[in-house]
Design goal:
Layout lengths: L1 H12 L1 H24 L11 E6 L4 E3 L2 E3 L1 H10 L5 E4 L2 H9 L5 E5 L3 H5 L13 E4 L5 H146 L6 H60 L4 H38 L3 H31 L6 H32 L8 H40 L5 H48 L3 H17 L1 H108 L4 H8 L15 H24 L12 H29 L7 H26 L1 H17 L11 H6 L4 H14 L4 H34 L17
Parallel strand pairs: 1-4, 1-5
Antiparallel strand pairs: 2-3, 5-6
Length: about 950
């Protein structure tokens, strides 16, 4: 203890050394206080950091409102105290940044608001808020400025978002109206869907009917295919019938010549008849005187009648043959008509547009039948006249007179009927069915007139029966023969014309109902024109043949009766005189009838060339008809093939219609679901519209949208400011510097007394270092508390400071004592290493791997941990205890090692191996 006291006595005696000792005690305090106070609260004074703001923004229109984000930002910054905002022009700001007057320049571009308004555009543009810093002026100032710029960005974003929110809520209000309209529209859709459902039911029913009908159509197509085969066979038959028609027309053309000759003969007979009538009328006056001659002539008449009676069987036989031929021709025509009907039935399916023409032909045919009936009546009249002639042949004069009147009546009626019928038929071209019916009625009226005329003429003949006498028998007989010949020719011509006309009529009917061949239609038109000229005479001739055949028995019977009655003619001669007088009174009518008969035969002869021309046209049309039928027959296979394709298509239609019907039912189910969904949609839209209307947005709402989050800072431990945060590091560093300076200044390797053992030397230096370390810790801690440092635990704070100071003191003393100045250098290097590796400024994860590697082995690491726990209580008691334990171990280890080092040095000194007292002597010579 003597050496310890002596150590402190010498310290107090050496005023320079004592002053140095005292000053050394304040070095940690000065270091810590000056450094910490300079950076005590820099973030609390950012309002003094000058920053320039340049506003180039131009206001724009956004949804009917003016958007001026730049001006709004400037207004907010003027009331912002976090930085020293200076609003300058671009040139002033750039120059201020260059001169170091401003730490940052914030530039608001001219399109700042414009870009903000582009949020709903196809390609929206971001709002670019640029800032420029000068890090060389002060990096911390740059960091603070950047934080301010980021905060500025957040404020701008919030403000713009608020504007967006206001615009969005305006649109939401509009969308509420749209929802209401959509709800109304959805209701209409629902109504439409209900109608669609009803329509779909109808469609489904009709599609089901279509599917069933398609099956029927399919069966019909198959039936059509079979029927069409029959039709093609009928076409072939029609073609054959066309050939027969052509042959019949040729026969008709051949019969025109005989008809022409017969008409000429008839004309000549009529002329002679007219001459005979003249003779008759002149002889009527001498009738009374010729009664006796009549008796004589009655004998000759009786002979003639016998001859006539013998000729009647021959006439009957010829008429029978003629009638049989007509029946054969009618049979052939029936076959042709059957083929024509088959052809017409097939063609009706191909050409429905010709229905009207068929009706007209049917009406025309009916008219021709009516005409034929009229001709039948006419022939009956002729046959009646012939019968009267046969009866009157009992007397020559009476028979010849009846024959002449009958022929005149036949010729007159035949000519009249032919002209009237031709006129009425020609009038039917291009007229309606009603008009044609009127024409038929007119023709019927004409025929009725002819019937009345026939009755009148028969009565006239009966009146003339008793008046004919005294005529030349031979001349009259010749005239009768010629008249019979003419009638026979007319009858033959009528038969030919009638047969050809029927064939032509049926051919025209087939051609009109054809498949549409232009050539066939032209031929049919020509054939029709020719038949119009031949129809009247043909019908009369055919009717005459039939009537003539039916009257043959009557003729035979009449001739027989005439022969039998000739015997009683003598008894009637007494009555003939009275009849002659009556006959004379009717001579005028007879003369007039003969004249009309002659005129009619002349007209008939004049019309024969026209009939011949029509027959030629008929033959040409028949040739065209035959060609058209052959062409139709040639095209029949194609038609059959097409019907086959139709049958295949109908099968596909049947399948498709069934699928379509099934799909329609599925569509009906879908429409039902869609209707239900539409109802729900209408309700939801209405609810949505009401919710939108109920939504009320205020400034609080807009602020909430603009800044929906609030940063809540919960401190696990509270650190007041930057000074408190940096204090653990600075306090540790200051104590280390104080210990380092102490071991630089104080003569620790010298002894206060010679000849003392090593442990006393160790205790003397240990006491000096202990007092200095504790004093440094107490002064530093106390003054820092006085300057504003607020530790969480005073005990832990001063305990940490004392243990840290002792650890540092004895560590550096160990190095300086053992290695002298090199040891002090090592202490300096250790200080530098601890500045980087102790983690006093930045978190260790932010430093390099080397510093993280040495971090656990540095004494300052544990000193900083302990100080942080004492100041903020954030490290935890375990960390504090561990840190204090490590520092205590370092201190104890260094104290122990210091004793060993000093013992070793003492031994060396005693062995004169080291000048222990002179190694720090001023200006001492180096060894």
């Amino acid at each position: 203890m003597d050496m310890v006291k002596n150590e402190w006595k010498k310290l107090f005696k050496n005023k320079i050394l004592l002053l140095s000792f005292v000053v050394i005690l304040f070095i940690p305090l000065l270091y810590a206080s000056f450094f910490l106070k300079s950076v005590w609260d820099p973030y609390g004074k950012t309002g003094d950091l000058p920053v320039a703001v340049v506003n180039n923004d131009k206001p724009v229109d956004y949804n009917g409102q003016t958007m001026d984000v730049g001006d709004q930002l400037v207004t907010k910054l003027k009331s912002n105290k976090e930085l020293d905002w200076n609003f300058l022009s671009k040139e002033e700001a750039e120059q201020g940044l260059k001169d170091g007057k401003y730490y940052m320049v914030v530039t608001i571009p001219k399109d700042f608001s414009k870009n903000a308004a582009s949020v709903l555009d196809k390609d929206p543009k971001k709002m670019e808020l640029s800032y420029k810093t000068n890090g060389s002026l002060n990096y911390l100032g740059q960091v603070v400025s950047e934080q301010g710029a980021k905060q500025l960005k957040s404020e701008v974003s919030a403000e713009v978002t608020k504007s967006y929110a206001e615009a969005i809520f305006d649109k939401i209000k509009e969308s509420g109206d749209g929802f209401a309209q959509a709800a109304d529209g959805s209701g209409k859709i629902k109504d439409g869907l209900v109608k669609s459902q009803e329509g779909n039911k109808t469609i489904s029913t009709n599609l089901k009917t279509l599917a069933d009908s398609s099956l029927t159509f399919k069966d019909g197509a198959n039936t059509l295919e079979v029927g069409l085969k029959t039709y093609t066979d009928g076409v072939n038959t029609a073609a054959a019938g066309g050939d027969k028609l052509n042959n019949g027309v040729s026969t008709l053309a051949a019969g025109v010549g005989p008809l022409k000759d017969g008409v000429a003969a008839l004309d000549g007979g009529a002329t002679k008849l007219a001459s005979g009538v003249s003779t008759y009328t002149s002889g009527v006056d001498t009738l009374a005187g010729g009664i006796n001659q009549a008796y004589t002539g009655s004998t000759a008449l009786s002979d003639g009648l016998n001859k006539m009676n013998g000729s009647v069987p021959t006439l009957a036989s010829g008429i029978t043959q003629l009638n049989n031929g007509q029946k054969s021709l009618a049979t052939g025509l029936d076959s042709l008509v059957d083929g024509s009907n088959k052809l017409s039935a097939g063609l009706k399916e191909l050409d429905g547009n010709l229905t009207d023409k068929q009706g007209k032909i049917a009406q025309l045919k009916q008219g021709m039948n009516d005409l034929q009936q009229g001709i039948d009546q006419l022939n009956q009249s002729v046959n009646g006249e012939d019968a009267a002639l046969a009866k009157q042949l009992a007397t020559l004069q009476k028979s010849l007179s009846d024959l002449q009147n009958g022929l005149t009546f036949i010729k007159s009626n035949a000519n009249f009927d032919a002209e009237a019928i031709k006129s009425k038929i020609n009038a039917t071209a291009g007229v309606s069915a009603e008009d044609k019916q009127k024409i038929i009625d007119a023709i019927q009226a004409d025929l009725d007139k002819e019937s009345q005329k026939s009755a009148t003429q028969v009565a006239t003949v009966e009146q003339l029966q008793s008046g004919l006498s005294g005529l030349d028998l031979a001349a009259i007989q010749t005239q009768v023969t010629e008249l019979q010949t003419g009638v026979a020719k007319i009858s033959a011509g009528y038969q030919a014309v009638h047969g050809g006309t029927n064939e032509a009529f049926n051919s025209i009917h087939q051609a009109i109902n054809g498949s549409g061949s232009q050539t066939l239609l032209g031929g049919a038109n020509q054939l029709t024109a020719g038949l119009k000229s031949a129809q009247a005479g043909n019908a009369k001739l055919v009717a005459g043949t039939n009537q003539l055949n039916s009257q043959v028995p009557t003729l035979t019977s009449g001739v027989g009766q005439l022969a039998a009655g000739s015997a009683s003619m003598e008894n009637g001669l007494s009555k003939l005189n009275d009849g002659g007088n009556k006959l004379a009174s009717n001579s005028g009518a007879l003369r007039s009838g003969a004249t009309e008969l002659q005129g009619g035969t002349n007209q008939l002869a004049a019309k024969v060339p026209t009939l011949a021309g029509g027959v030629n046209q008929l033959q040409a049309g028949s040739n065209q008809l035959a060609g058209g039928l052959n062409q139709l027959s040639a095209n029949s296979p194609k038609l059959v093939s097409g019907v086959g394709q139709l049958a295949d298509g109908s099968s596909k239609i049947a399948d498709g219609s069934s699928k379509l019907a099934n799909g329609s039912f599925q569509l009906g189910d879908g429409l039902t679901k869609l209707t239900d969904g539409s109802t729900e949609l209408t309700d939801k839209l209405a609810d949505g519209a009401q919710q939108v209307k109920d939504t009320k947005a205020t400034d609080k709402t807009f602020n909430m949208i603009a800044a929906p989050t609030k940063l809540a800072h919960n401190e696990y431990t509270h650190v007041s400011n930057y000074g408190h945060a940096l204090a653990p590091y600075v306090l540790s560093l200051a104590l280390y510097v104080g210990a380092l300076v102490f071991n630089f200044i104080m003569p620790i390797r010298r002894v206060s007394m010679e000849g003392q053992p090593a442990y006393k030397w160790w205790l003397s230096k240990l006491s000096l270092g202990f007092v200095a370390a504790v004093a440094m810790a107490l002064l530093e801690g106390g003054i820092m508390i006085a300057l504003g440092l607020r530790p969480d635990s005073i005990f832990e704070f001063f305990g940490t400071a004392i243990i840290t100071a002792l650890a540092y003191m004895f560590l550096i003393m160990l190095l300086a004592m053992t290695f002298d100045n090199p040891g002090r250098f090592i202490a300096m290097v250790l200080l530098i290493v601890q500045l980087a590796g102790s983690g006093g400024t930045f978190p260790m994860p932010l430093t390099g791997w080397f510093f993280n590697l040495i971090h656990p082995f540095l004494p300052m690491t544990y000193s900083i941990y302990a100080f942080r726990e004492s100041l903020a209580a954030g490290m935890g008691p375990n960390v504090y205890s561990m840190s204090m334990l490590v520092l205590t171990i370092i201190m104890i280890a260094c104290v122990g090692l210091l004793y060993l080092s000093m013992s070793h040095l003492k031994k060396r000194h005693d062995a004169h191996e080291s000048a222990l007292d002179d190694n720090q002597k001023l200006m001492a010579l180096e060894n």
